[in-house]
């Protein structure tokens, strides 16, 4: 069922209530009497609803708030909050049953019991949507619905580090999606089958919800609109994901999180020695 609702979004250890979503007319410049009022009402002349610049406003494509049995949890890296073309905020506008936790390390139950109580509300089992050799197909857990589905909302390298920092996340049963090419044509994924956060959630809900096909279509509508609007600024853009290699395996996920950082430092030191030699 669809219905407008107020949602609670978790950021860090605090819960803040999201304001009611406005109408499409709220983001149209004609709805404001003059330009000065528009600037005063909306900082940086962004839409007050989707918070995107008015020229690329997505409110027209946003569905009414979608109610699901599945509870979606976004474990979001702090840098994702400042990125303009990430898809996590679109999910927050579309889904009623969604929790967002911003941080670099997911807290254990003893560190944040209120959060974990919310994750398991109603006896829901928790699953981590992340590829790996031990991951089962997301369709296999449809019989266990309703469930809590946790996603790491970050770049892939950051996501591996965030996963390695949490023993609780590593211990969760893991599910993965069928092979699918991402519609993020201007952003190259690390391997074939890797998709954006919104695409992953829509595909998972397609298997977990009774009317999953309709929910998937509703969620993808603003994403496809965002891609369409962005392509107007790069008319000759090619799909960077068209010729990717094999799907991502789980081989790198247990690597030392500090390995990449230490390797870069070592490279810089070696370069400085060569410069002074």
Q: Can you tell me about this structure?
A:
- It is built from 8 helices and 8 strands.
- It is an alpha/beta fold and 277 residues long.
- Strands 4-3-7-5-8-6 form a 6-stranded parallel beta sheet. A two-stranded antiparallel sheet has the order 1-2.
- α6 (197-208) runs antiparallel to α7 (212-231).
- The longest helix has 20 residues, at 212-231.
- The model is unreliable at 1-20, 22-42, 248-252 and 254-259 (pLDDT under 50).
Q: How far is the N terminus from the C terminus?
A: 70 Å
Largest sheet: 6 strands, parallel
Poorly predicted parts: 1-20, 22-42, 248-252, 254-259
* Number of separate strands: 8
Radius of gyration: 20 Å
List keywords for this structure.
277 residues, 6-stranded parallel β-sheet, alpha/beta, 8 strands
Sum this structure up briefly.
The chain is α/β, with parallel strands linked by helices.
């Amino acid at each position: 069922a669809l219905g407008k609702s107020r949602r609670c979004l978790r950021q860090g250890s605090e819960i803040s209530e999201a304001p009611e979503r406005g109408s499409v007319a709220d983001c149209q410049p004609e709805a404001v009497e003059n330009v000065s009022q528009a600037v005063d009402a909306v900082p940086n002349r962004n839409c007050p609803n989707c918070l995107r610049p008015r020229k690329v406003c997505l409110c027209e494509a946003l569905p009414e708030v979608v109610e699901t049995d599945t509870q979606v949890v976004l474990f979001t890296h702090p840098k994702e909050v400042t990125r303009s073309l990430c898809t996590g905020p679109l999910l927050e506008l579309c889904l009623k049953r969604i929790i967002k936790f911003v941080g670099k390390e997911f807290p254990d139950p003893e560190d944040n019991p209120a959060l974990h109580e919310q994750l398991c509300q109603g006896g829901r089992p928790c699953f981590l949507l992340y590829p790996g050799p031990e991951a089962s197909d997301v369709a296999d857990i449809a019989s266990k619905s309703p469930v809590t589905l946790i996603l790491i909302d970050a770049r892939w390298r950051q996501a591996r580090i965030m996963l390695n920092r949490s023993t609780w996340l590593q211990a969760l049963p893991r599910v993965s999606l069928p092979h699918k090419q991402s519609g993020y044509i201007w952003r190259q994924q690390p391997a074939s089958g890797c998709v954006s956060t919104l695409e992953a959630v829509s595909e998972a809900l397609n298997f977990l919800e009774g009317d999953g096909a309709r929910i998937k279509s509703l969620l993808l509508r603003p994403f496809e609109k965002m891609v369409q609007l962005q392509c107007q600024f790069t008319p000759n853009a090619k799909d960077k994901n068209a010729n990717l290699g094999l799907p991502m395996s789980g081989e790198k996920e247990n690597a030392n999180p500090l390995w990449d950082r230490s390797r870069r430092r070592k490279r810089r030191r070696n370069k400085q020695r060569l410069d002074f030699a």
